[in-house]
């Protein structure tokens, strides 16, 4: 039997718990797409309301007002103004915060004037007693002409009542108070405005006018109104004042706060976490603990995964008959995928800890704290959010710049965000640090490898800030922006939200990287196991050259495998570019890794895993062991010594090395010019920096 489907839009200010409520309603039954024609993410999920009714829930971007100041906020207006849009809701659920109800109700009053049935969900109801807050919901419902539901999305309270209210949405009235407000502002003006399009609601016409969005056939009707922008802005301001006057009247009768009963520690904690000295020390200490955890907690699971893939490749080799398919599987696909899967523990830990910091409300304090520094370097305070989220992935971080209203600040943030150390760099950093940095304690507590990782993250963040300062001084773009940040309450993290965040981001990382790794591993295996005539004659040539040498069978196989790899298609390509990368301390094998990692940084590890699997002998099971055992034939020392390892770390700290990020930068800036400037500029900086580091340390 087909279920009745109700389209529900979730709308609210940032930090009202809207995402937590979305997760409670939809769980794992959610997906992320894009709104037609724009690049903003569209989160949609399904929720069972009863045996015969299902809600299709769309989580719209957080906004303070229906009048947008950024691309993300404009989505809300676009969805609600177009009744033919597939996302147009049957009912709107406005999510508010019990502590900030006055400000939240401004958005509610605007949404309600659109004429769609609207429900008011007051979140964080479990905190009301602690804050000394009491709400007369019955009177509030009467005053707002809607249903009011007290909920706690984090503790799953009131959710069943909310579902039932959504299911009964048809009993809700469609209310609009805008005509009364408009007549207070300027009756004659708005009556004339209504006459331009009598079939539309006055509020829809007003919203079209404030955004200067008219269809071609109606554009001429609004000409006498649209040219006076200053009057429109003035009337918008008056509209907001009248809305707040009404909200104040309602809240006087329905909302009370008894500060004597409040037991809130928020103000005391804010004084500590946003302190001009201790705030930065605490933030640095938290970062240090995060990177200590990445190495210390992940060691056991990574060793298990490392050994599993090595044993699995050997077992597969004994299980299947000799041939091309077996070689492809054991020398190409398994080591390539294993080179990514091994880093899942570290990535999960990173994502989980960042999600916990966001859930507790601490991340908003970091944004507020860092704004004081960012402004000195020509960036908007909101630019800190993409820089911090860039530690997960540069792609969503670049997309997060849409909340920045000033074009210059947004462009600068887009251009510098890839400097921050993303999760794709983590596999490269982790394996190189494990090889060249000893695993020992410093000051009896700090892991030296963790300190090195923290240093690389700070280097990336510092480079982003310095690059922003240079761009601020060189880019001749006039722009103004304002910084507004919500400071949510401190709260215990919702482990369901943390799990969903980690699950989605890890799944995305593994699947997206896995597709690239699998394809490149197959291509690399083919190029490394085939070649011109010299490849076919490699074994004969080796035997002739070392006829008198007393070598074991394993040593002979190693010599033949090395000669074949060197004469394969990929070996020839590597030898061709070797003169370019040699000054950095790299050989032709590392050069191949640099080329393939332009698809995605993490492919570097998978590439070396494939190359060394093809070249290696049977008792060398893991990528790390093979990299550690690699010898530089010119010096007789390890190929991955301290100088080469540091050169590679610095190269990947600065190099773009991510085609997906190049593509998203082009899409966000609507120009290949900025994407190419970024790609070439970061590439040159990476090469020069790596060259200097190797020459100094060698």
Describe this structure in words.
The protein is of the alpha/beta class. It has three domains: 4-171, Rossmann fold, CATH 3.40.50; 278-312 and 316-323 and 335-474, no CATH class; 499-697, no CATH class. Helices cover 61% and strands 8% of the residues. It has 33 helices and eleven strands. The protein has a seven-stranded mixed β-sheet with strand order 2-3-4-1-5-6-8, with helices on both faces. A hairpin with a 6-residue loop joins β2 (30-34) and β3. Mean pLDDT is 79; it is low at 35-39 and 616-621.
Quick synopsis:
The protein has 698 residues and is of the alpha/beta class. The chain contains 33 helices and eleven strands.
- Characterize the overall form: elongated
What summary fits the major beta sheet? 7 strands, mixed
Helix share, percent: 55-70%
The main sheet orders its strands as 2-3-4-1-5-6-8
Tally of individual helices: 33
Low-pLDDT windows of residues: 35-39, 616-621
Q: What is the straight-line distance between the termini?
A: 73 Å
Helices and strands in order:
Layout: E1 4-12, H1 18-26, E2 30-34, E3 41-50, E4 53-59, H2 71-81, E5 91-97, H3 101-112, E6 118-123, H4 128-131, E7 133-135, H5 137-144, E8 147-150, H6 159-167, H7 178-195, H8 202-211, H9 216-219, H10 223-226, H11 229-254, E9 255-257, H12 266-273, H13 278-296, H14 299-319, H15 324-341, H16 344-360, H17 362-374, H18 384-389, H19 394-399, H20 407-416, H21 425-436, E10 441-442, E11 446-447, H22 448-474, H23 495-528, H24 533-536, H25 538-545, H26 553-566, H27 569-581, H28 588-596, H29 603-615, H30 623-629, H31 642-654, H32 659-669, H33 672-697
Parallel strand pairs: 1-4, 1-5, 5-6, 6-8
Antiparallel strand pairs: 2-3, 3-4, 7-9, 10-11
């Amino acid at each position: 039997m087909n279920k009745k489907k109700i389209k529900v839009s979730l709308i609210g200010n940032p930090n009202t718990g809207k995402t937590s409520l979305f997760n409670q309603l939809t769980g794992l039954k959610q997906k992320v797409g894009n709104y037609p024609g724009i690049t903003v993410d569209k989160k949609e999920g399904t929720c069972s309301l009863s045996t015969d009714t299902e809600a299709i829930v769309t989580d719209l971007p957080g906004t303070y007002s229906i009048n947008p100041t950024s691309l993300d906020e404009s989505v809300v207006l676009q969805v609600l103004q177009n009744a033919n849009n597939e996302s147009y809701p049957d009912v709107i659920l406005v999510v508010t915060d019990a502590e900030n109800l006055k400000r939240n109700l401004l958005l509610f009053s605007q949404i309600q004037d659109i004429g769609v049935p609207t429900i008011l969900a007051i979140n964080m109801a479990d905190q009301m007693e602690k804050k000394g807050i009491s709400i007369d919901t019955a009177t509030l419902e009467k005053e707002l002409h809607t249903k009011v539901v007290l909920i706690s999305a984090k503790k799953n309270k009131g959710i069943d009542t909310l579902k039932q209210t959504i299911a009964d949405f048809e009993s809700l009235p469609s209310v609009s108070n805008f005509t009364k407000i408009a007549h207070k502002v300027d009756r004659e003006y708005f009556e004339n405005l209504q006459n331009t399009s009598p079939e539309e609601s006055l509020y829809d016409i007003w919203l079209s006018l404030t955004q200067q969005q008219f269809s071609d056939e109606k554009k001429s009707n609004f000409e006498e109104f649209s040219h006076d922008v200053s009057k429109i802005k003035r009337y918008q301001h008056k509209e907001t004042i009248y809305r707040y006057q009404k909200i104040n009247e309602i809240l006087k009768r329905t909302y009370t706060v008894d500060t004597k009963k409040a037991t809130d520690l928020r103000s005391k904690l804010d004084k500590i976490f946003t302190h001009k000295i201790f705030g930065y020390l605490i933030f640095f200490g938290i970062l240090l603990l995060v990177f200590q955890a990445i190495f210390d907690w992940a060691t056991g699971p990574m060793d298990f995964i490392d050994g599993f893939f090595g044993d699995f490749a050997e077992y597969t080799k004994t299980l299947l008959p000799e041939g091309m398919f077996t070689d492809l599987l054991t020398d190409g696909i398994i080591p390539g995928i294993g080179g990514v899967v091994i880093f899942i523990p570290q990535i999960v830990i990173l994502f989980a800890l960042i999600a916990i910091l966001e859930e507790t409300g601490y991340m908003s304090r970091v944004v507020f704290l860092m704004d004081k520094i960012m402004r000195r370097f020509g960036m908007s305070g909101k630019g800190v959010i993409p820089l911090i989220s860039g530690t997960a992935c540069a792609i969503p971080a670049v997309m997060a710049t849409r909340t920045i209203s000033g074009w210059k600040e947004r462009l600068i943030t887009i251009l510098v965000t890839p400097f921050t150390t993303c999760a794709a760099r983590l596999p490269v950093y982790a394996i190189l640090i494990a090889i060249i940095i000893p695993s020992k304690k410093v000051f009896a507590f700090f892991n030296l490898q963790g300190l090195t990782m923290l240093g690389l993250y700070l280097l990336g963040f510092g480079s982003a800030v310095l690059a922003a300062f240079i761009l601020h001084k060189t880019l001749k773009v006039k722009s103004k922006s304002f910084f507004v940040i919500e400071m949510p309450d401190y709260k215990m993290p919702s482990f369901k939200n943390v799990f969903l965040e980690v699950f989605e981001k890890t799944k995305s990382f593994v699947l997206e990287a896995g597709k690239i790794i699998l394809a490149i591993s197959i291509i690399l295996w083919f190029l490394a196991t085939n070649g011109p005539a010299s490849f076919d004659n490699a074994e004969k040539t080796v035997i002739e050259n070392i006829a008198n040498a007393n070598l074991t069978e394993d040593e002979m196989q190693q010599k033949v495998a090395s000669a074949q790899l060197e004469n394969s298609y990929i070996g020839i390509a590597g030898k061709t570019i070797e003169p370019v990368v040699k000054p950095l301390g790299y050989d032709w094998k590392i050069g191949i890794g640099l080329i393939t990692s332009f698809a995605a940084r993490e492919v570097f590890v998978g590439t070396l895993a494939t190359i060394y699997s093809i070249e290696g002998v049977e008792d060398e099971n893991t990528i790390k062991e093979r990299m550690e055992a690699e010898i530089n034939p010119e010096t007789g020392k390890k190929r991955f010594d301290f100088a080469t390892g540091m050169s590679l770390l610095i190269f990947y700290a600065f190099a773009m090395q991510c085609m997906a990020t190049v593509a998203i930068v082009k899409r966000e800036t609507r120009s290949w010019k900025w994407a190419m400037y970024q790609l070439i500029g970061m590439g040159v900086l990476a090469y020069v920096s790596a060259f200097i580091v190797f020459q100094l340390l060698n």
